[in-house]
Design a protein that fits this description.
- By secondary structure, the protein is α+β, with helices and mostly antiparallel strands.
- It is about 35% helix and about 20% strand.
- Strands 1, 2, 3, 4, 5, 6, 7 and 8 form an 8-stranded mixed sheet that branches.
- Helix 1 packs parallel to helix 4 and helix 2 packs antiparallel against helix 3.
- The radius of gyration is 16 Å and the shape is globular.
Length: about 210
């Protein structure tokens, strides 16, 4: 079993022992960030092509990757960007396999370095079908950060078709799922959400 086998949110919930909490407008209040002219031009050129090809790979390469690279530019190239990298963390819990995209709060690019902050799972048409897989990868990111000594209070996740985006936040054992979808016409909002997810937030320990 691997990340791709978590083909429903319910499957991830049961197998990983998480609580799922639906939240309307979970990240709606994050300040938007205007895209650069380069991104605007890229999306304008690629949108029709991606829609015509209409495969997950085309949407991933032509729409999702340029948006994530814009987030990297927003952070002055001080974050890591990884595509299709193996992210085997704990095979005993089926937390193994490749992730479509990973963003880290580290400028190290030769190797994946903690903390992992954001997971983006690409899907062709059906956002709902990617939620379970994305959650499994977020749990893996949480475990990875803890193992590497960089625990975070929140891990962000997104499932995207390129034109449509849905966001999730994992805190402890609860994953919050934004009931709203964000569309490529709301690129300012999408960039703001993604950029805000890359500020490291050390987990808070409370003494008993």
């Amino acid at each position: 079993m691997a990340y791709s086998d978590f083909n429903t949110l319910e499957k991830a919930r049961k197998a990983l022992g998480i609580v799922v909490s639906d939240q309307p407008r979970l990240v709606a209040n994050v300040p938007p960030i205007a895209p650069s002219e380069m991104l605007r031009a890229t999306l304008e050129e690629n949108l029709t092509l991606a829609s015509a090809i209409s495969t997950e790979k085309a949407r991933s390469e032509l729409l999702i990757a340029p948006i994530l690279l814009e987030v990297r530019r927003i952070h002055h190239h001080r974050i890591g960007f990884f595509s299709g990298i193996d992210f085997t963390v704990d095979p005993s819990r089926e937390l193994n396999g490749a992730c479509d995209f990973i963003l880290t709060a580290s400028s190290e690019q030769s190797i994946l370095t903690a903390p992992v902050m954001t997971i983006v799972e690409a899907k062709n048409e059906n956002l709902k079908s990617g939620l379970g897989q994305c959650v499994a990868q977020m749990v893996a990111a949480q475990c990875y950060n803890e193992r590497e000594g960089t625990p975070q209070s929140a891990i962000y996740g997104a499932v995207a078709t390129g034109t449509n985006w849905k966001f999730l936040i994992l805190k402890d054992t609860t994953v919050q799922v934004d009931l709203s979808e964000y569309y490529i016409t709301q690129i300012d909002q999408i960039l703001g959400i993604l950029a805000s997810s890359l500020t490291p937030q050390p987990a808070i320990s409370v003494a008993s």
